[in-house]
Amino acid sequence: MISRRTIRSIAALLGLALLAGLAYAHRWRSNPSPCPYAQRHAIDLPRPVITRSRLRDVLEPQPGERLLEVGPGTGYYTGMVARAIEPSGTVHAVDVQSEMVEHLRTRMRQEGTLNVEPIRGDARSLPYPADTFDAAYLVLVLGEIPDQERALDELERVLKPDGRLVVGESLPDPHFVGFEGLRRRIEQRGLTFDARVGTRAGYFARFHVGTADRSIDPVE
Questions:
Q1: What is the pLDDT of residue 38?
Q2: Bridge-based pairing state of the strands 191-199 and 159-170
């Protein structure tokens, strides 16, 4: 039989572990940073809510388009999007970590995907002129950027008139960005909410530059 003293000791240890976990999560959320390359295997795990097919349905990539992916990591979505815009379309995949860029370049070459351009760059200062892309997307990335407002400004800048922006978010990501706040911030930049799919804990949201609100919102 376990003594009360032992039970109290176990409870105290569990309490300390919980506090340490909460402190770590708070520090991680308060100091946004991209997933380290050493943990790259975690970002290739299946994503039940923010799936590749859902991204394709919301992004609506068309053959011949020029698309921007911010924070592709190891390329979980990149190949699928690139194949959808063949033969003359191009995906420019910008990641702040050089290791991720090289990993993605190798992966695309091994898969035989030739229309992806992996580039090392910062979302807060994208290396492209204004009105460059037909569409841009970032998934589980916005909350990792130290200056989200500047990154949103940059995304608006590089999109063409009538360009599309898709943002994907999902819990339990500690950098999760809620939809309502995201919509307000993006609409302040002149983009119009167009569609959202997924659940309240995980979603893809699409916005357009200077278009009418279609208000498609099939959230579970």
A1: 86
A2: unpaired
Q: What is each CA distance from 111 to 55, 86, 107, 138, in whole angstroms?
A: 20, 14, 6, 22
Question: 112 near 83, Cβ under 8 Å?
Answer: no
Check: CATH 3.30.300.20 for 37-209?
Answer: no
Side chain identity at residue 147, one-letter code: D
Question: Closest Cα partner for 80 from 57, 106, 105?
Answer: 57
Q: Are 51 and 168 in contact (CB under 8 A)?
A: no
Q: Which residues share a beta bridge with 120?
A: 95
pLDDT single digits (tens) 53-77: 999 999 999 999 999 999 999 999 9
Tokens of 86: 């063949």
CA atoms within 13 A on the CB side of 149: 3
pLDDT of 183 > 90? The answer is: yes
pLDDT tens-digit series, residues 110-145: 999 999 999 999 999 999 999 999 999 999 999 999
Q: What is the distance between the alpha carbons of residues 67 and 133, in angstroms, rounded to a whole number? A: 5
- Measured CA to CA in angstroms, residue 88 lies from 23, 67, 84, 151, 209 at distances of 48, 12, 10, 28, 23
